[in-house]
Amino acid sequence: MKATESNKIAVIIGAGPAGLTAAYELLTRTDIKPIVLEKSERIGGLSRTIQYKGNRMDIGGHRFFSKSDRVMNWWLKHMPLENAAASNATISYQRQSRSLRSSDASAVPPESVEPSAKVDSDMVMLVRPRKSRIYFLGKFFAYPLQLSWDTLSKLGVIRTTRIALSYFRSLLLPISRVSNLEDFFINRFGRELYATFFKSYTEKVWGTPCSAISADWGEQRIKGLSIWKTIAHHLKEALRRRPEDFRQKATETSLIEQFLYPKYGPGQMWEEVARKVESLGGKIFQNAHVTKITTDGQWVRSVLVGNSALPQQRFKADFVISTMPVTELIQALDTPIPADVQEISDGLQYRDFITVGLLLKALTITDGDTPGRRLITDNWIYIQEPGVLAGRLQIFNNWSPSLVANQDQVWVGVEYFCYQTDPIWELDDAAMARLAQEELQKIGIIDRADVLDSHVERVPKAYPAYFGTYARFDVLRQHLDSFDNLFLIGRNGMHKYNNQDHSMLTAMAAVDSIVAGLGDKHRIWAVNTEAEYHEETLEGQRCEFNAAG
């Protein structure tokens, strides 16, 4: 039953997964009308899909996997599994087994049946195998690392011995006070393995020493992963006799082996949700740059938007749900900002992102165990070779064949992590494409003669950083949470390196609080990445949160 909030307006800043989830939840659970303000001309935020000459790019790569049943049901509500009706696929919901056949009402909640999604054979989720590897010393290593003969033989006896001795030293004599990410890695994997596989790549991604990054990043992204869990996982795989449910709820996220994926990339999901938001009466404005947020005491009254081509427009608000970077939110508020809050906001940092799409005749690298195979099966390749700036390689063919217009060609994304102040950010598209080609040829992944075309995408503020003034972020958070009708959600909205599903959960938690008439924001902040979500009940709505605040 919908909450009775007749004639009330929720202004939602940002049309990414968090913002669109909030809009849809409000429309289907309340009488509150959402108005979504998107700064860019594209829907989906970081989860958008870029189209270029019939080929599609997934910015950063988005596996549709969650330990939250609420999120998994939500996705399948909008996009059912491909060929689910003809399969015997089953899933586990809180120790219950249910069919995934689209004809089975138990596959998704009854109220979520979407006839249009069922009829459209393109509006479907694929079940995709997950494979990622590390490219180092001109060789492939399994990712996450496996203590297999293959790994040990490639590392060599001397390096392997040092890794083993270093790991056992960390077990016996761990760093007692973990104050940064370097300490976290050393305690978890040993100094030698950290130096071999974690240090250079992590610093390439973040552009700062691991010793200057908060350990919170490790706690959020790989809190449950360790050498022992990796060994246990692979022993379990070797002994398992039946296929595991693709939800893999008991598996660490870094170890999952299957995931869901929209046929035409993640943007397909969010474009569909945006369509439904508007069909249900919500409004979405693109190219809507928030210029000012007006307040009255601890209450947000309105949001002003505009751009160079349009006059400024004011949207009155009963609720404001923000996914915009907190630094920009602070700048937009019309009320005086306390000096310490302003200092923290000014000191927050972000890592920016560039993807170079390369259309190729072929790759020069092959899988040694499949002679004659034209294309390796990896989704991602983590490039840890020294001497190149490229950090990761996506092979779009392996995310979904439908991302590639010509199946005889290979479509890849070369990923670079940088700051907008770095020279690489200022390179024009042609120079950026040349750099990507030169680097991949240098490390033996492609032959530049096989390049057919290229396309460059730049994403500012892609990754909120856990350094700068981040250690004092709670002070800024408390100030923003003091506005009774302002809710911060999503990755940049909370300056928290959330996955897509966690961003959605923060949106759901915000709507839960609005439905229940709660001003307390702790339920939103309690949604924590890489956590086993605990169930709580709020006014009849089942929610899943991390129990730790």
Question: How would you sum up this structure in a few lines?
Answer:
The protein has 549 residues and is an alpha+beta fold. The chain has 19 helices and 23 strands. Strands 9-8-17-18-19-16-20 form a seven-stranded mixed β-sheet. Strands 11-2-1-15-21 form a five-stranded parallel β-sheet, with helices on one face. The protein has a three-stranded antiparallel β-sheet with strand order 12-13-14, with helices on one face.
- The CATH superfamily of the largest domain is known as FAD/NAD(P)-binding domain
- Kindly state the number of beta strands: 23
| Radius of gyration, in angstroms, nearest whole number | 23 Å
What is the number of helical segments per DSSP (H or I, 4+ residues)?
A: 19
Give the tally of structural domains. Answer: 3
| Unreliable runs | 90-113, 115-119, 223-235, 241-255, 529-549
What is the averaged pLDDT score?
Answer: 83
Termini separation comes to 29 Å
What CATH architecture of the largest domain do you see?
3-Layer(bba) Sandwich
CATH class of the largest domain: Alpha Beta
Fraction in helix: 25-40%
CATH fold descriptor of the largest domain? FAD/NAD(P)-binding domain
Please specify the SSE layout and strand pairing.
Layout: E1 9-13, H1 17-29, E2 33-37, E3 49-52, E4 55-58, H2 69-78, E5 90-93, E6 96-99, H3 115-119, E7 125-129, E8 132-136, E9 139-143, H4 149-155, H5 157-172, H6 181-189, H7 191-206, H8 216-221, H9 227-239, E10 258-262, H10 266-279, E11 283-285, E12 289-296, E13 299-306, E14 313-316, E15 319-322, H11 326-332, H12 339-347, E16 350-360, E17 380-383, E18 392-395, H13 396-399, E19 410-418, H14 423-426, H15 429-442, E20 451-464, H16 473-481, E21 486-488, H17 491-494, H18 500-516, H19 522-525, E22 534-538, E23 541-545
Parallel strand pairs: 1-2, 1-15, 2-11, 8-17, 15-21
Antiparallel strand pairs: 3-4, 5-6, 7-10, 8-9, 12-13, 13-14, 16-19, 16-20, 17-18, 18-19, 22-23
Helix pairs in contact: 1-10, 1-18, 5-6, 6-7, 12-16
